[in-house]
Amino acid sequence: MTRQPTLATERLLLRPMTLTDAPEVQRLAGDYDVAANALDIPYPYPDGVAGSWIAGHEEGFVLGEMVVFAVTPADDDLLIGAIGLMNIDRRHRRGELGYWIGKPYWNRGYATEAAGAIIAYGFGGLGLNRIYAMYFTRNPASARVMQKCGMAYEGCLRRHVQKWGFFEDIGIYGIVKEEYLAGSAGRDHRSRRTKTA
Ligand SMILES: CC(C)(COP(=O)(O)OP(=O)(O)OC[C@H]1O[C@@H](n2cnc3c(N)ncnc32)[C@H](O)[C@@H]1OP(=O)(O)O)[C@@H](O)C(=O)NCCC(=O)NCCS
């Protein structure tokens, strides 16, 4: 069985989470400004939720459905965020990029750096053909991360989800393997067909 790798970037390590990360997940994801911008993060963040979430990561990876990484500085094992690919669909070879970074660490380029590594891993190690990401349109910082990773804006799903009693507009960015490999990501997303490998 393939084990989940650890990915290194210039300043970060992306590694599998362990239960010892649970208190930091609860503290950082439990910040109102993080929870408010992520579809599935509760607020307040109840005891036990982080541990249950982390405990499901290995099975999700083994089943090929998702892969989640702790984001840590390269020289310190302390978790500063989470990133991964969810809703992995083997038939269509696509996955949904998702992430959050703890508020004390915002605007240092960490989400962009981590997302770049996850996109490379998705197309390389996981053999995906398409990676997409969704964000509340009221959250321009997340859209900016997607742009900086070379993803192309694909559209808006109006009032697509509910978050805390409000219907929210969802923006979508995506990137496909051929444009990623050609280095032309984000420039052109006219529809076309591609042959499966
Ligand atoms: C979105 C999030 C992951 C960004 O993390 P980060 O490490 O700060 O991201 P980066 O530093 O790589 O990039 C942030 C970019 O957004 C920009 N930005 C920040 N706030 C912004 C705002 N209010 N309006 C427009 N751009 C904004 C920054 O200037 C930066 O762009 P730049 O490099 O061109 O200046 C982080 O804010 C977060 O975790 N938010 C809460 C949870 C969340 O939104 N998750 C994503 C759900 S789709």
From TrEMBL:
Cross-referenced Gene3D superfamilies, in alphabetical order? 3.40.630.30
Could you tell me the keywords of this UniProt record?
Acyltransferase, Transferase
Signal peptide residues are none
| The keyword GTP-binding is annotated on this UniProt entry | no
Residue ranges of domain N-acetyltransferase in the record: 12-173
Pfam families referenced in this protein's UniProt entry, alphabetically = Acetyltransf_3
Q: Which GO terms describe its molecular function?
A: acyltransferase activity, transferring groups other than amino-acyl groups
Q: Which family does it belong to?
A: Belongs to the acetyltransferase family. RimJ subfamily.
Its recorded name reads Acetyltransferase
**Which organism does this sequence originate in?**
Methanoculleus taiwanensis
Q: What is the lineage of its organism?
A: Archaea, Methanobacteriati, Methanobacteriota, Stenosarchaea group, Methanomicrobia
